[in-house]
UniProtKB/TrEMBL annotation:
<feature type="compositionally biased region" description="Low complexity">
    <location>
        <begin position="1"/>
        <end position="17"/>
    </location>
</feature>
<dbReference type="GO" id="GO:0006817">
    <property type="term" value="P:phosphate ion transport"/>
</dbReference>
<keyword id="KW-0449">Lipoprotein</keyword>
<comment type="function">
    <text>Part of the ABC transporter complex PstSACB involved in phosphate import.</text>
</comment>
<feature type="region of interest" description="Disordered">
    <location>
        <begin position="1"/>
        <end position="22"/>
    </location>
</feature>
<dbReference type="GO" id="GO:0042301">
    <property type="term" value="F:phosphate ion binding"/>
</dbReference>
<dbReference type="Pfam" id="PF12849">
    <property type="entry name" value="PBP_like_2"/>
</dbReference>
<dbReference type="GO" id="GO:0005886">
    <property type="term" value="C:plasma membrane"/>
</dbReference>
<dbReference type="InterPro" id="IPR024370">
    <property type="entry name" value="PBP_domain"/>
</dbReference>
<protein>
    <recommendedName>
        <fullName>Phosphate-binding protein</fullName>
    </recommendedName>
</protein>
<keyword id="KW-0564">Palmitate</keyword>
<keyword id="KW-1003">Cell membrane</keyword>
<keyword id="KW-0813">Transport</keyword>
<comment type="subunit">
    <text>The complex is composed of two ATP-binding proteins (PstB), two transmembrane proteins (PstC and PstA) and a solute-binding protein (PstS).</text>
</comment>
<keyword id="KW-0732">Signal</keyword>
<dbReference type="InterPro" id="IPR011862">
    <property type="entry name" value="Phos-bd"/>
</dbReference>
<dbReference type="InterPro" id="IPR050811">
    <property type="entry name" value="Phosphate_ABC_transporter"/>
</dbReference>
């Protein structure tokens, strides 16, 4: 009868207006600092787009760019801007990309919970500890009155944008660091959490969300960059007073892959929701107009 025909036409009308069911796989790799954001967004996006597989790796910013330049990934997570030589390599391979900043992070200096002597540290003292050929062995070498106990030093390894950022800001040159038996370089940020929480004389650094997630096991140290000691918090990271260790976090999107409907839908979803999600996982949102500006680039 007539009814069947009308329901038919209605059905096809809604089908044409609702987007095609998205399928496919989206490969993301790079910064372990950006990972919690990407992972949370992938999960939320997946609730609405169950047919799309989003895979998020943690090769580190540098490792992620290597894969991105080889066209293995659609999106590269980065805790520092792309380096000139990486950009040149991408160009050589014909890879055009968009750089989108997604959140702010405050690189956090942590010591063991039982460390009673460090209540703040200066950027000069951090340099003394971490610089190439550092003479610092004990806490007393850093500041008179601190104990004459050997410091067990932890750092992310050279694949991490966090390492690049810290060494550039503190030591004056990216990738320049002490490299002796007193320092342990970790590919996995959670290993730094374990190392520092397991040794009274240990110290390390990583992105703010790793501190937030493990604050019951660690002590956060305010940093004095010349204007008094300031601890990272949502407020001090956002207003820039936690200096010089506040930094933007980025995603790089392969423009050619952005033409795939599932990648476009994911990146749109990402930029619309990242402000809220970044806060939930322990980062700081950018001002809304910054997201709006970047969303215009995606149109």
């Amino acid at each position: 009868g007539n009814n069947a025909a009308t329901t038919e036409t209605n059905k096809s009308a809604t089908e044409t207006t609702s987007p095609e069911k998205l399928t496919g796989t989206i490969e993301i790799d790079g910064s372990s600092t950006v990972y919690p954001i990407a992972e949370a967004i992938a999960e939320e996006f997946g609730k609405e787009n169950g047919e799309v597989r989003v895979s998020v790796g943690t090769a580190g910013t540098g490792g992620g760019f290597k894969r991105f330049i080889n066209s293995e990934t659609a999106i590269s997570n980065a805790s520092r801007p792309i380096k000139e030589k990486e950009a040149a390599a991408a160009k050589e391979k014909g890879i055009d990309y968009l750089e989108l900043s997604v959140a702010y992070d405050g690189l956090s200096i942590v010591v063991n919970k039982d460390n009673t002597w460090v209540d703040h540290i200066t950027t000069d003292e951090l340099k003394k500890i971490y610089e190439p050929n550092s003479k610092v062995k004990t806490w007393a070498d850093v500041r008179a009155g601190w104990p004459a106990e050997d410091i067990k030093i932890y750092s992310p390894d050279t694949n991490h944008g966090t390492f690049d950022y810290f060494t550039e800001e503190i030591n004056g040159k990216a990738q320049e660091s002490r490299n002796d038996k007193q320092i342990t370089f970790s590919a996995d940020t959670n290993a730094i959490v374990q190392g520092v929480s397991g040794d009274k004389n240990a110290m390390g650094y990583f992105g703010f969300s790793y501190y937030e997630e493990n604050q019951d096991k660690l002590k956060l140290i305010p940093v004095d960059g010349g204007k008094g000691a300031i601890a990272p918090s949502e407020e001090t990271i956002k207003d820039g007073s936690y200096a010089p260790l506040s930094r933007p976090l980025f995603i790089y999107v392969n423009k050619k892959k952005l033409e795939q409907p599932e990648v476009k839908a994911f990146v749109d979803y990402y930029m619309k929701n990242v402000g809220n999600i970044a806060k939930e996982v322990g980062y700081v949102a950018l001002p809304q107009e910054k997201y709006d500006e970047q969303m215009n680039l995606l149109k």
